[in-house]
Amino acid sequence: MLYLAESKKIVMVGIPGVGKTTLLSKIVEHIKDHQKSIQVISFGTLMFEVAKENGIKDRDELRRLSIPRQQELQKIAAEKIASQTEEVVIIDTHAFISSPEGYYPGLPEHVLKIIKPSNFISVSAKPEEIYSRRMTDETRNRDKNTIENVKKELDVQSGMISACAVITGSPVKHVLNREGKVDEAADKIIQSLGL
Fold first, then answer.
1. CA-CA distance, 52 to 46, in Å (whole number)?
2. Please, which pLDDT band fits residue 2 given cuts at 50, 70 and 90?
3. Is 16 within 8 Å of 93 (Cβ atoms)?
4. Residue 190, Cβ neighbours under 10 Å: how many?
5. Model's pTM, two decimal places?
6. What is the mean pLDDT of the chain?
């Protein structure tokens, strides 16, 4: 009897400005070069697509939904991710969502139980580099920020993703994406995943 290998579900997190998008493109390129099927899914985008099917028109409206309604949408999005059959599925998301109440987990326990990630990758960079990248990114309209705030965000990300690893029993790899060293960071991730 033949058994199909279960796809490897990898959760990759990084605060804005760590260079996650560039890093992801390098990893995808490598995996495709090794003839493996891959799917990259933005959890936030998928959740918004599910919300649009239910009458939500923009992301701001999505954020204002009640917590139970947001959890319902998270569950549907997580189920769609869990059903993916590519050999490698990378879930691009954030470890936390900042709100006036505090930090909400980007990957609450109910989502983790559905997705069943095999690995977590936490991407960071030097706070000064993140700050500089944010200040020069004209494609986004970001809130005013300071290097101290960036350091705090990195600390929160580290704590949140470590909690995810404890909940699931899956390993977490912390990778520093230094300026001009994206290939080095990509290689470290690929090696840790055994791809």
1. 10
2. very low
3. no
4. 15
5. 0.88
6. 89
